[in-house]
Design brief:
This protein is an alpha/beta fold. Helix 2 links the parallel strand 3 and strand 4. The chain is globular, with a radius of gyration of 18 Å. It starts with a strand and ends with a strand.
Length: 271
């Protein structure tokens, strides 16, 4: 049976990439491409809604899908744990599924998982993320998700040390982790998670260099999960077995297929 997909924000960069992946996947068909200003009544007739709109519109898209009994895959940034918690009762009451993916890049998800694995061992942790100047929100959804995973991994040792965070230049705190956002031309997506301890530091860096190539494997995984989901699912780390410890994972799932993911660069540096 073919899954009929409506893409909100389908005229944007991410929405266009998602649309190409959907059309190339057996068993899926794009039946509606909406902009962020389209009437949400156009979702009618779809089996799955994919939201790649804007942070301001996304909440309405998710609610509209849930009210119509349609599962939704959310790729729009700006969904913190607190915001997702507001949607959970609606999803549970409707018996639908909502899958929130802060970043479709498998390399980025691995970087966040590695950060969570390292988190209990360093007292000082900060995140620096950079995106193109057209990105509306900050901090990025990926940075927020990384900070939340770090906080969960540090449940037994407490929040990170972040002196003088009352000063605006020290960044925005998310789950006790300072995040610094850069918005500039010449970059697509880059995140550095910097760990500092007595006499040493560790930096985990992920760069997206070709989004269409980097996101496609994650989009395929997320589409499959969203089609059959019940309840709330957050992050690609909930869909794959990363294998770096329970602190970096949200749920068990089948392992990802073998093979490299082109279009992204991940590296770990020590100093």
């Amino acid at each position: 049976m073919t899954t009929r997909v409506a893409i909100v924000g389908g005229t944007g960069k991410l929405g266009g990439i998602i649309g190409e992946v959907v059309e190339s996947e057996p068993g899926y068909e794009v039946v509606a491409v909406l902009s962020s200003r389209s009437e949400l009544s156009e979702l009618k007739g779809s089996d799955l809604v994919v939201d790649a709109s804007t942070p301001a519109v996304s909440i309405d898209v998710v609610r509209a899908a849930i009210e119509r009994g349609i599962n939704v895959l959310v790729g729009t940034s700006g969904w913190s744990a607190e915001r997702i918690a507001l949607i959970r009762p609606l999803v549970d009451a409707a018996g639908t599924g909502a899958v929130f993916i802060p970043n479709f890049s498998l390399g980025s998800v691995l970087g966040s998982a590695l950060a969570a694995a390292a988190a209990p061992f360093f007292p000082s942790i900060e995140i620096v993320e950079a995106h193109r100047e057209t990105k509306i929100d900050s901090p990025s959804g990926t940075a927020v998700r990384t900070a939340e995973l770090i906080a969960a991994a540090r449940a037994d040792v407490g929040p990170v040390e972040s002196p003088r965070v009352d000063q605006r230049a020290r960044g925005q705190q998310v789950a006790s982790v300072p995040i610094h956002s850069l918005r500039r031309p010449g970059v697509i997506a880059r995140q550095e998670t910097i760990f500092s301890g007595a006499g040493e530091s560790l930096t985990i860096v992920h760069d997206t260099v070709e989004p269409a190539l980097a996101y496609a494997p994650g989009i395929r995984l997320a589409l499959s999960a969203a089609r059959d989901a019940q309840g709330i699912v957050v992050g690609l780390d909930s869909l794959i077995d990363i294998g770096v410890g329970r602190s970096a994972r949200v749920a068990d799932a089948a392992p990802v297929a073998e093979g490299g993911v082109p279009g992204q660069v991940a590296r770990t540096t020590g100093a």
